[in-house]
Amino acid sequence: MMRQFNYILVLGAVIVLSCYGCGNNKNAHIGAWEMVYFRSVYRNDTTEMKSNGTPLGITLLTPTHFSYQWKDSPDGAAGTYTYDGKVIHQKFEYLEVPTFVGARLSFNMEVRNDSIIFSGPVKAVSAIGSDIMDMVPQLYEIRRRVK
């Protein structure tokens, strides 16, 4: 009887642990992502780009750091972040525009199957804590997981 209980306990533990990555996984965003759609709205200026089979850029997300690089451009950024499953809070430690180094921006971010939908910012502050929302365009991006 005790032996049967141990088998049931082990089987239950295996099932629970195997489903650790199932469902709404808080770490589903970690990996390499290709940007396939980009829209930027800043005051009266709107820029929109769609991938025609070649990604617009690449984003890398580790559990604590992010980086992105635009294709055929020196524009890129890197830094640290936290993600609560809805909002990503980024601290820019490298950026092509030095005045934004140290800035903290928060964006809505949702993982949908093999895509990340990224929009905002919903909050933007400089390295010294000043509100800089009026200096940052509103972005909408779609990224697909690199296979």
Automatic annotation (TrEMBL):
PROSITE patterns: PROKAR_LIPOPROTEIN. This is Lipocalin-like domain-containing protein.
